[in-house]
Write a structure and sequence with these properties.
- About 75% of the residues lie in helices and about 0% in strands.
- It is mostly helical.
- The protein has a single domain (about 10-215), classed as Four Helix Bundle (Hemerythrin (Met), subunit A) (Up-down Bundle), CATH 1.20.120.1760.
- α2 (about 35-55) packs antiparallel against α3.
- The longest helix has about 30 residues, at about 185-215.
- The radius of gyration is 18 Å and the shape is globular.
- It comes from Pelistega indica.
- This is CDP-diacylglycerol-glycerol-3-phosphate 3-phosphatidyltransferase.
- One of its GO terms (biological process) is phospholipid biosynthetic process.
- One of its GO terms (cellular component) is membrane.
- It holds the Pfam family CDP-OH_P_transf.
Amino acid sequence: MQNYRSTDRRPLAVRSNKIVQKIARWLAKRSFPTPNQISLFSILFAVLGAIALSLIITGDYVEWKLIICTVCIQLRLLCNLFDGMVAVEGNKLSPLGALYNEVPDRIADSVLFVALGFALSELSWGLFLALLAMMTAYIRNLGGALGLPQSFKGPMAKQHRMAVMTAVCIIGAIEWYMFKTNYSLYLALILLVIGSIATCIVRLIDIATLLNQSGK
């Protein structure tokens, strides 16, 4: 991240929140955790959430497992928020920062989506969704490698995917408590797949348009 560019950073309005900025400053003053360590914590929370989600296949305490997954997803997102803020605003950029910024995200996405597929006995679809999530990131980084601003466009960018996962875990917990069904999880899986495919297409079109405009 020493070669950091503002166009490589996902635009998030929450970064301007005073409470968030105060927490980031507090973290920046400490030797632990470092921005890279915060990035690794995001994997830990994603794995814990994925374990909880995958275990709903047993049919026991489903609503509680979905609530645990919801909390873990939010903790993962907080790690994603603060690793960059502490690194940039706290002036703690490191030579390996770019790797820690990207690789944990790909792992965290993958384990959650594979867990969703496993929980529904649709592992192949979970794996397909994990692949699509990686493709959205690959296409974004491809634009950057071509000298263009990285495209964070949706309709199913990372924050949108995690918003869907959070919402469906909450709705799914209510659905299971009331009806002992999990149709909402199936619907979310379909929505995530379609949305991720659309995101890949949108970003490719965006890159192609910018390349044509620049004459590259």
